[in-house]
Amino acid sequence: MLTPLSDRDALDVAGLERLVEHMLAGGVHGLFILGTTGEGPSLSYPLRKELIERTCRLVNGRVPVLVGITDTAFAESVKVARWSADAGADALVAAPPYYLPAGQAELLEYLQHLVPELPLPLFLYNMPALTKVAFDPETVRCAMDEPRIIGLKDSSGNMTYFHRIAALLPHRPDWALLMGPEELLPDAIFAGGHGGVNGGANLFPKLYVQLCAAARAGDMARVRTLHAHVMSVGEQLYRVGRHPSALIKSLKCALSLLGVCDDFMAEPFQRFREPERQRVRQILDGLHPLLRDI
Amino acid sequence: MLTPLSDRDALDVAGLERLVEHMLAGGVHGLFILGTTGEGPSLSYPLRKELIERTCRLVNGRVPVLVGITDTAFAESVKVARWSADAGADALVAAPPYYLPAGQAELLEYLQHLVPELPLPLFLYNMPALTKVAFDPETVRCAMDEPRIIGLKDSSGNMTYFHRIAALLPHRPDWALLMGPEELLPDAIFAGGHGGVNGGANLFPKLYVQLCAAARAGDMARVRTLHAHVMSVGEQLYRVGRHPSALIKSLKCALSLLGVCDDFMAEPFQRFREPERQRVRQILDGLHPLLRDI
Amino acid sequence: MLTPLSDRDALDVAGLERLVEHMLAGGVHGLFILGTTGEGPSLSYPLRKELIERTCRLVNGRVPVLVGITDTAFAESVKVARWSADAGADALVAAPPYYLPAGQAELLEYLQHLVPELPLPLFLYNMPALTKVAFDPETVRCAMDEPRIIGLKDSSGNMTYFHRIAALLPHRPDWALLMGPEELLPDAIFAGGHGGVNGGANLFPKLYVQLCAAARAGDMARVRTLHAHVMSVGEQLYRVGRHPSALIKSLKCALSLLGVCDDFMAEPFQRFREPERQRVRQILDGLHPLLRDI
Amino acid sequence: MLTPLSDRDALDVAGLERLVEHMLAGGVHGLFILGTTGEGPSLSYPLRKELIERTCRLVNGRVPVLVGITDTAFAESVKVARWSADAGADALVAAPPYYLPAGQAELLEYLQHLVPELPLPLFLYNMPALTKVAFDPETVRCAMDEPRIIGLKDSSGNMTYFHRIAALLPHRPDWALLMGPEELLPDAIFAGGHGGVNGGANLFPKLYVQLCAAARAGDMARVRTLHAHVMSVGEQLYRVGRHPSALIKSLKCALSLLGVCDDFMAEPFQRFREPERQRVRQILDGLHPLLRDI
Fold it and tell me: How remote is the C-alpha of A91 from its chain's centroid?
């Protein structure tokens, strides 16, 4: 879930409420806040606390709330984890500390030190493009021996990696294996994964929910149709900007055009200026008819 | 400067005092705390505050103290900057926010937003291996128009980049251009740079101070001799461990063997175990005669 | 297809015949020689000519033969292409020239210059890990306007890229879109691709042929079973060696143990020594019961 | 040295003669043909043979001629080496085979197999950006035990690597250690290297020869002046195009404007079009006054 902001270090409180309701109305099965798309690492800690508390209050148990605690400082991860438990969140999500990259043995030891400090169960978050280091399948296999680690979100975009993790699931039938990049949502389901944690679901929650359902049902024709729409979102909307931040900017811009929330971005990023905003408007106009009847 | 730790989230206070005195006795011209070698991003904010205050008190104006404020969250950088000013530090050091990489135009705008919030002048810190994005020379050129940005530490290891920045110095004759990787300290001086910010100076401060002086004086024979020692430190000591953290672990281990400070590492890293510690001991035994007469 | 060698610059002629018959007996729908797994770029040109002629004679029209003409020198690509046509091959395969990487506009112009010189239709070969540059989807779209370009083999391992190319297929319904990495064969079929060009089919041709058939038929249970075997081949066999050459060495070693062909490797690679050979033997012993009834 | 071409697979014979004389008149101490800047891997083998023969005849012993034999196919490297010896060349230059990257043990074994087949002594060519694999210092140390390997050209741009190789020179006082990137020519000399193999010496041979001489003489003021000119060439001329081929295109374009040789490029590259040519002309006009009095 995006983090609606109204200014530097200021939550767009009304926008947050509308965004939560928009996503829940679209049928999402959970919310992951303070992840990459949620600009988690860019937010001050007081703001993170406020977001956790408000989101949990708004959701009020309708779906699970997962909170990102990825941090370079161990103590700060634990602090955010405690806020999450106090606010009533359901689980935590942690990628590797992302400044100086650790080796696999160190990563595993890190998890073994972290989990006992956490008041809630933990999802691993594999995001090597941004953390420089992946959770290797051998490390994931060892992490499965820790019962309070309950799943993994893979944002590597590497389907071979995803297959390798899926091949480990018999060791932990209770695990949830989730796909980050939305273009690979059906691939993930076919490979034995359980769902997606997809940025596009902020904007078009039904599209991703129904694509997931179609893939689970093995309805290949409907998968093709819905996946083509997902590809269009990626090929059009996320290409308005350059840089890895383009996805967040595009989604915030589109949601702002739809009146859901403000498109303010946390530093060092800036919202789209008017020319990009115009292009987003045109793209939305083109996508809406396609997505109306989903 | 390394951050001596005695336990998770606990400063080695006596070790910090000995380390500061060891480095000042070796003649260093300044101290940079909370950088990469100082495990800055791995430390909790309260610990960072304590380190800043204690270091400034210990140094007590004998040399300038520079404080790293690199962060993914703007507000947290500003918070650490204010603590630094309150404690009497002399300058701040910022690398690009290091989670989601920004484009160059965004980096420049980030600096333009950051500098007015800072109570002290700022050094840029170019560290692309860890921040994923460099300050391009064009961006540095623009940053030179901001009078409160007063220098750059380049840890890219890319001498062509260093030459390109050096070629911009006529625009800001007051700037300090400093070299990160210690193997390139004489190269930096010959290229028009002003000095080094070298991890090895925690252990052998005189070696780096005198190498810098020899290079400035154009004493090529002495540069060759001292540089060969610096290469030995790198080839032997920093190769005890693997991973980018090996440099920090080796230095902490060596300083612990010398009785200067504890070798506890912040998560997700761990101090060397006994076999590596034995090798560090042997290497130190081999290096000491070489370095005795410097 | 692997290139069986008996010595430096010497074809294992009897091994080649056995390998071709082994693969055809396994039901493969075509043979691609002089690709990456075929050590194409490592072979002298006279050896490449001999391989093309012998393979075409052995196959004798039973399946199409595709010949890799990837080269850094334009004239050498054309030379190999002519040998291929003279020998009766069916199509050519070209990755980008792989020394100094070209830009996309240059790649497209290169294709536009190359195709008219070729006596046979051409497949593109996307292999960015080895050629440093991919055929971007926009470039592939333009290449589709050239009727003598008839398909693409994607060895990027990037399923999002594969989906993007699959989305272009309506422009050329006659194109064949093929998957390189064998772990992604079912994903490729589900994504609208047509098949695989998989190294493992040298050893276990039936496994890959039947996995492809199961995926086309939408028989998900059988896909799961067969894909698990493919993952086992990758997790066990291809991990005997290190380096990107491990796949070729493992396959050659296994085929040598089965009496199909020699495991000599072209420079700068060397066949497995006895310890690795023992491990390959054990792995084969473990895999054979699984694969017996496919 | 660039390879002047008049058309696809056709040498610009008159241009080659003028280029050789231009460079020798500028005082270069040797010529390296069929390297990266010489588009070696892009040329057909007959053309390579012709270039070797013509260059050796033109030079006629006035300076040593070094010939690049880098190839993915062992037998082709040996073939070019024999042509070189027959034509009277002085030494050979080989980078690692550049398609499938080899491990360090394999690289060393490759050299041990290659050297006995070569009729001339060999320089190693470290060019990891294009060959994907470097000659690690440990591998270079072992290669020094082979008396017919007589030096190394480092085009990594990594001065720490260069220092590490320089530290090995006491094992082979007869070795020549040469720098590829021209911006690092003085750094190389100060680090104990012997000279440069710099593309810019095709255009301004005197500039590089004199910069090398000034650095050897320790004349720092003159080094600063000349190095600033070298930086200007890089910052202006080589930035006219994009892509790694820009250096070659710019140099060929400039030499064509000066009437030295044609600017035809081997596939997949194309000479600059008119707008870039205009910019090169302007840059040359700006550089000439600076370089007149060198």
Answer: 13
Hey, are the CB atoms on C184 and A159 less than 8 Å from each other?
Answer: yes
Name which of B9, B109, B270 is nearest A75 (Cβ-Cβ): B9
| Chains D+A touching (3+ CB pairs under 8 Å) | no
The rounded radius of gyration (Å) of the Cα atoms in chain D is: 18
B8 close contact with A: CB closer than 8 A: yes
| Cα Rg of chain A (Å, integer) | 18
DSSP 8-class letter at C102? P
Q: Which residues of C touch D100 (CB under 8 A)?
A: 36, 39, 41-42, 130, 244-245, 248, 269
Of all residues in chain A, the one with the smallest CA distance to B45 is A76
**Nearest CA distance, C125 vs chain D (angstrom):** 14
The pLDDT-based confidence of C105 (bands split at 50, 70, 90) is very high
pLDDT, residue D172, reads 98
* The pLDDT value given to residue D243: 77
pLDDT in tens, C44-103: 999 999 999 999 999 999 999 999 999 999 999 999 999 999 999 999 999 999 999 999
Q: Is B134 left (phi over 0), alpha (psi -120 to 50) or beta?
A: beta
At residue A145, the 3 state secondary structure works out as coil
Asked if D47's CB is within 8 angstroms of C102's CB, the reply is no
CB atoms within 10 A of CB D9: 17
Rounded to 5°, angle at Cα A250 from A248 and A254: 120
Taking alpha carbons only, the member of D92, D14, D17 closest to residue D57 is D17
Mean pLDDT of B111-117: 98
Read off the amino acid at residue B96.
Answer: P
Residue A294 has pLDDT above 90, yes or no: no
Q: If we measure between CA atoms, which residue out of A269, A285, A261, A278 comes closest to residue A55? A: A261
From C93, C78, C80, select the one nearest C31 (Cα to Cα): C93
Taking the Cβ of residue A236 and every Cβ of chain B, the question of whether any pair is shorter than 8 Å is answered with: no
State the pLDDT at residue C293.
75
Shortest CB distance from A228 goes to which of C167, C190, C220? C167
Query: Which of A216, A250, A249 has its CA nearest to residue A236?
Result: A250
CA angle, residues C42, C68, D93, in degrees to nearest 5: 30
- Per-residue pLDDT, C290: 81
Which chain B residues in 204-223 lie under 8 Å from chain A, judged by CB atoms? none
CA-CA distances (angstroms) from residue C58 to A20, C44, C208, C225?
65, 21, 22, 33
A contact test, residue of C138, C189, C227, C230 with most A CBs within 10 A: C227
Rounded Cα–Cα distance for residues C77 and C68 (Å): 9
Chains B and C touch (3+ CB pairs under 8 A): no
How many CA atoms lie less than 13 Å away from C82 in the CB half-sphere?
Answer: 8
Give the C-alpha separation, D158 to D204, whole Å.
Answer: 24
- CB contacts of C76 in chain D (<8 Å) are 44-45
Q: What pLDDT is attached to residue D46?
A: 98
Task: Indicate which of C2, C9, C100 best probes the interface with D, i.e. most D CBs within 10 Å of its own CB.
Answer: C100
Closest CA to D237 of D259, D229, D155, D4: D229
Q: Which two tokens stand for residue A285?
A: 């106009």
Of C98, C99, C153, C238, catalytic: C153
Please check whether residue A230 is in contact with residue A205, taking contact to mean a CB–CB distance below 8 angstroms. Answer: no
What confidence category does residue D279 fall into, taking pLDDT thresholds of 50, 70 and 90? Answer: very high
For residue C268, is the peptide bond before it cis, meaning its omega torsion is within 30 degrees of 0?
yes
Prediction pTM value = 0.96
Q: Which chains touch C (3 or more CB pairs under 8 A)?
A: A, D
